[in-house]
Amino acid sequence: MQQDEEFGDFKKALTSPVCPHCKAAISAHQVLQPGHCGAEPCFLAHISRGVQAQKDQREQDYIERQNSAKEGKASALATAAFHLNCDTDDLLIAVVPFQNNPVEPLPPAHREAFQQHLEKIIEEAFALGSSALENAEISPNSSAEHSIIDAACSTCQGFCCARGGGENHAFLTVKTILGYLSQNQELLQEDVVAHYMDALPQASVRAACVFQSDQGCTLERTSRAALCNTFYCHDLFAMHDLTKGRSDVRMAIIGVNDDTPAKVSAFSEIAGQICMDPA
């Protein structure tokens, strides 16, 4: 019955179609593409409606992932509440991605490719001279929210780092090097190369950023690309909405891999991050 009604509505839309925004008559073709009359106000309204629909769907997906993670990690959430000295119902529940790819020695080809990229951008940075330091890419100062963001990223274990193609470049650019030089102007070119090469871990996550170890990024925050310090995935934005930007919360952060909750961290300003092993 419902299908018949939906078909009837669709048939009516094709036989007497109107723009959903201004109600002007449109052709059957316009119903299908682009879905409105084509006037600029309707085009903008159509884009806005699409953006809102995506936002609503993303929020709904997040809620479903939260509920699934709560069910899958009920015992761990009770333990998290115990560590944070609160009831389980008082915990804010955040979900983030989770990666647990194997850690292995960095392949020589990746190390060589990274070193070539590194030496190239460092040479270019030095060639620009001290006057270029005003365009330096300075890493942002720490904020009160950084600790909770760090806890979320630690729980995730670098899902975005493992998928960003950083195995040959670590997202470093000439501007990154200029930013580092602006804070270390006494260094020579070979010193900067050594600084980054010495930071490479003995073993890194397979097919991920060269600095991504089993303990997180081995590159100090002030030496990283600005992207690495400022990128927020959709789940971090959702967590920001959940906490309203505050860090004085009691929270359980659940890492989810392919719809399966895999790791839980408890967090509060007083306790810091309490990590629990992946399931």
Structural features, described:
There is one protein chain. With 279 residues, the chain is an alpha+beta fold. It folds into two domains: 49 residues, no CATH class; 173 residues, no CATH class. It has ten helices and eight strands. The chain has a four-stranded mixed sheet with strand order 1-6-7-8, with helices on both faces. The two termini are 46 Å apart. The mean pLDDT is 85.
Keywords:
279 residues; two-stranded antiparallel ribbon; four-stranded mixed beta sheet; 10 helices; 8 strands; globular; 2 domains; alpha+beta
Strand order of the largest sheet: 1-6-7-8
Give the percentage of residues in beta strands. Answer: 5-15%
Over all CA atoms, what is the radius of gyration?
A: 25 Å
> So how many helices?
10
Brief account:
The chain has ten helices and eight strands. It is an alpha+beta fold.
What's the layout of helices and strands?
Blueprint: H1 2-15, H2 28-32, H3 40-72, H4 74-83, E1 92-97, E2 103-105, H5 108-128, H6 146-156, H7 174-183, H8 189-198, E3 203-205, E4 212-213, E5 216-217, H9 226-230, H10 234-243, E6 251-257, E7 260-268, E8 272-275
Parallel strand pairs: 1-6
Antiparallel strand pairs: 2-3, 4-5, 6-7, 7-8
Helix pairs in contact: 5-7, 5-8
